[in-house]
Design a protein that fits this description.
- The chain is of the alpha/beta class.
- It folds into four domains: about 150 residues, Rossmann fold; about 180 residues, P-loop containing nucleotide triphosphate hydrolases (Rossmann fold, 3-Layer(aba) Sandwich); about 240 residues, Aminopeptidase, CATH 3.40.630.30; about 100 residues, no CATH class.
- It is built from 28 helices and 21 strands.
- The strands form four sheets. The chain has an eight-stranded mixed beta sheet, sandwiched between helices.
- Helix 23 packs parallel to helix 28 and helix 25 packs across helix 27.
- This is tRNA(Met) cytidine acetyltransferase.
- Keywords: Acyltransferase, ATP-binding, Cytoplasm, Nucleotide-binding, RNA-binding, Transferase, tRNA processing, tRNA-binding.
């Protein structure tokens, strides 16, 4: 109530004010914290975060960058002295059974409070309990209520159009001069020039920056230029609100240069579609619609790209000319899927990629105190140690140690190194994970350190050890937080006993890029197994399956028990679950699911996993336990079909069933006597396991014709017939070999 009266005295419109909290108490725009991402790409003068009932670190990271320079970010909190001891909604999500909410600590909020008290630019007002909030006018603050005034001296100075940019219009610029005149920094000029490369086919632009650097504005100016030239520009973002700045800049430029242009607005009066007199246009589509329409557009612009799933980003690569504008340092609260996973996909695509980074701030001054605070409070700019400090690390030089949360809280360097390693190495690490690392009772962190610096880190979660009632509830469709492996094995694979054994799941594991491929990740897993193996029944993991990751875990003793039948939104991959049993109880769980998986996987390949990457399928089968291989029980007729196709005039298409079983057994048992090439193995996966048509297989594997592809498949089965064939099969082989 007091805040409402204070806001009424400020020269800020209600449309420039947003309350992020559970209830609409201020008669302005109100967004619940889980939906705070709607503010990405937008600008507000005042953002209020009501943290009394809940504070989600992701939401805080998302809203900080939406506040304009000179604006206010207001946190409504309990008394700072007692806030770390209070538990809220986010804390409840950390209370993973068998732990209760009282087991959740307040280290994250304690650290947050310390940064609030320490950083410049932050006023702290602690209202007294007897303050009168019923008055129409805000009462003056009591002398002891204003704990810190937040004023800075000297105040940060924002660059003005009179001082920037200095670069001017590039001498060979193709875009109109008015577009470059609208740029406010040299960085923006360079970004706009990079967009000019999209005039050529097969080009891509990646524009990244921290908040407030003008990346969306540069993208909007470029979109307007292409539309003025007659191109159809398709714009997408997590929501239309995220593209507000982009459309505003495009609208301003088009209105200045094309008096006949037409603008269609949404219900809030913001441009959603711009049509130029030359026949060009800028239009917004939500990500799913944009993915299906991108090939028809001349230019595609994806704003706030890092907030979209990797699988969605991949679908946009079908566009001939495409730009991605995104925020770095984790403001999205959605992990680092763009940086960690999608950049590699883009590099492997047929596009010629131009990259630009914007560093100079526009929305607020360089060194803005609130940006500096947010980076520290949420570790948005956390980095692993610099390369020279760990360059000599080897498995013999490192020390294995527990990263105690209290120690992390007291040692900022250690915390930044460990969390920075997780951020840069994993696509799903987000601000919420910082709170989990410090407060979650079911999590443990272990690291290898070299001369005191973190070179490899693992985040571990205790799972299983669930009582009969909890297991029954999970079997009947209920969810038990923090028990990912038992949940999948119980609810999806219908094993009610799966939650009884106790286990440790490796949630994240990361090794410094300077010392990868030296065996440090394997050494860390070895030490984790030494520490926990005698106290739990299994070690496990789950991740977006790629050939390299599957190979790494297989080489460290883990075996595949399940592959999801849908792609993960964040990684764009099918998820694999792998297990390493450490007791007889764990071995029993492992054996029954390994056998079931080996039996069902070939059938899945022709159905829900028909688009699984062949190299992923190869590694999945290689990481299936040998003892789980399905015995071959072919009839003489089935062996005649297989041997006849391998050595004679028989055809695979007559009866694919036995071929599928034989290929599956080969991949699982991996006999030394059979030496198929990678191309031959991909052929087995694509045609035999996944049932892909001959023409597509021939094209993907670069055979000259379908006929050549058919002959190659027969030849690939020859060593399999030699290795596994019955007497009947070998007689057929010898017969045709003689002829």
């Amino acid at each position: 109530a007091c805040l409402e009266t204070i806001l009424s005295t400020l020269p800020v419109g209600i449309t420039d004010t947003t309350l992020v909290g559970p209830e609409d108490r201020l008669r302005c725009e109100q967004i619940e914290q889980p939906r705070a991402g709607r503010l990405l790409g937008t600008t507000r003068q005042v953002v209020i975060v009501d943290a009394h009932e809940d504070l989600q670190p992701n939401a805080l990271g998302q809203v900080v960058g939406a506040v304009d320079g000179g604006g206010l970010l207001i946190l409504l909190t309990p008394a700072l002295e007692t806030w770390p001891d209070r538990r809220n909604g986010f804390d409840q999500s950390l209370a993973v059974p068998p732990f209760a909410i009282d087991d959740v600590t307040g280290r994250f909020k304690r650290r947050l409070v310390e940064t609030i008290r320490e950083h410049r630019g932050i006023a702290v007002v602690e209202f007294s309990d007897d303050r009168d909030t019923g008055s129409a006018e805000p009462a003056a603050l009591a002398e002891d209520e204003l704990v810190a005034n937040g004023l800075t001296n000297p105040a940060p100075i924002l660059s003005t159009p009179d001082t920037a940019p200095a670069a001017g219009i590039p001498p060979d610029a193709a875009f109109p001069a008015a577009a470059y005149d609208a740029c406010l920094t040299d960085d923006q000029v360079g970004a706009l020039a990079a967009f000019e490369s999209l005039a050529e086919p097969g080009r891509a632009v990646v524009l990244d920056a921290d908040r407030g650097r003008g990346k969306s504005s540069a993208a909007g100016l470029a979109a307007g230029c292409f539309a003025l030239a007659g191109d159809s520009v398709l714009v997408t973002a997590p929501s239309v609100a995220n593209a507000t700045e982009l459309f505003a800049r495009a609208d301003e430029l088009v209105a200045e240069l094309d008096a006949e242009a037409a603008v269609s607005e949404d219900s809030r009066g913001a441009p959603r579609e711009i049509d130029t007199s030359s026949g060009g246009r800028v239009r917004f589509r939500d990500p799913s619609a944009a993915a299906s329409e991108c090939e028809a557009a001349d230019v595609v612009v994806v704003d706030e790209a890092a907030a979209l799933p990797v699988s969605t980003l991949e679908s946009f690569l079908a566009a001939d000319r495409i730009a991605f504008a995104t925020t770095i340092h984790g403001y999205e609260g959605a992990g680092r899927g763009f940086s960690v996973r999608f950049r590699d996909r883009l590099a492997e695509s047929d596009h010629d990629v131009t990259e630009r980074t914007l560093a100079a701030p526009i929305r607020y001054a360089a060194g803005d105190p609130i940006e500096v605070w947010a980076f520290r409070a949420l570790l948005l700019d956390a980095r692993p140690p610099v390369a020279p400090l760990v360059a000599d690390a080897t498995p013999d030089s490192v020390e294995y140690r527990r990263l105690d949360p209290d120690e992390l809280l007291a040692d900022e360097r250690l915390l930044r190194e460990a969390f920075g390693l997780l951020v840069l190495a994993h696509y799903r690490t987000e601000p919420n994970d910082l709170a989990r690392l410090l407060d979650a009772p079911n999590l443990d962190a272990r690291a290898l350190v070299h001369d005191g610096h973190v070179v490899s880190v693992a985040l571990l979660a205790r799972e299983g050890d669930l009582g009969a009632e909890a297991r029954a509830m999970m079997y009947e469709g209920g969810r038990i937080r923090g028990n990912m492996l038992p949940d999948v094995l119980t609810s999806q694979l219908r094993d009610e006993a799966a939650g009884e054994p106790a286990g440790v799941r490796v949630v994240r594991i990361a090794t410094h890029h300077e010392v990868r491929a030296r065996g440090l990740g394997s050494r860390l897993l070895e030490r984790v197994r030494d520490e926990f193996g005698s106290t739990v029944d299994w070690l496990g993991t789950g991740f977006g399956a790629t050939p390299d990751l599957l190979s790494f875990w297989r080489e460290n003793g883990f075996r595949t028990l399940h592959v999801s039948t849908t792609r993960n939104d964040a990684s764009g991959e099918y998820s694999a679950l792998m297990l390493d049993p450490t007791s007889d109880t764990g071995r029993a769980l492992y054996d029954r699911h390994a056998e079931r998986f080996a039996r069902r996987f070939p059938a899945l390949c022709t159905d829900s996993l028909a688009d699984l990457d062949p190299d992923v399928a190869r590694e999945v089968l290689r990481s299936t336990p040998d003892e789980a291989a399905t015995p071959l029980e072919f009839t003489d007729h089935e062996w005649r079909i297989v041997a006849g196709a391998a050595y004679g005039p028989g055809l695979f298409d007559v009866d694919p069933g036995p071929f599928r079983e034989l290929a599956g057994r080969y991949f699982v048992t991996k006999p030394d006597a059979v030496d198929l090439s990678e191309r031959e193995e991909r052929l087995l996966v694509l045609r035999v396991l996944q049932g892909t048509d001959w023409a597509t297989v021939a094209d993907r594997l670069e055979f000259h014709s379908s006929g050549q592809c058919m002959r190659a498949l027969g030849e690939a089965f020859q060593p399999l017939v030699d290795e596994y064939g019955s007497e009947e099969a070998l007689e057929i082989r010898d017969r045709f070999a003689t002829e």
